[in-house]
Design brief:
- The protein is about 15% helix and about 35% strand.
- By secondary structure, the protein is an alpha+beta fold.
- The chain has three helices and seven strands.
- The two termini are about 15 Å apart.
- It has a five-stranded antiparallel beta sheet, with no helix packed on it. Strands 6-7 form a two-stranded antiparallel sheet.
Length: about 100
């Protein structure tokens, strides 16, 4: 799967949430002077609450900072276009664990 397979479902300013396939939720943020997209995995609960945490006041961006500090699972940058499934996590009950992909 490539970054171009991302389906944007909810949008905000320079950011969105959507899906890769049926079950990989992702946060898209545009970076750099060319607005190159980067994708970070989010849980279904984070996806569903996007409208709340994406509007956090500029001095209180706890959720956004937490998400952008997660690994970039793919991006529009050269050499990062393919979805890196080894970085995917299982989200359950507020905890995230590395997901074994076979």
């Amino acid at each position: 799967m490539r970054y171009t397979d991302y389906i944007r479902l909810k949008t905000g300013r320079y950011q969105s949430v959507g899906k890769f396939g049926d079950d990989i939720y992702a946060y898209e943020v545009l970076t750099g002077i060319a607005d190159t997209p980067e994708y970070h995995q989010v849980s279904k609960e984070e996806f569903e609450s996007f409208e709340t945490w994406s509007q956090e006041y500029i001095t209180d961006l706890k959720k956004a900072y937490e998400i952008i500090n997660r690994p970039v699972i793919c991006s529009g940058y050269l050499g990062r276009a393919e979805l890196n499934t080894s970085l995917l996590r299982i989200f359950s009950r507020g905890m995230n664990k590395k997901r074994p992909i076979r």
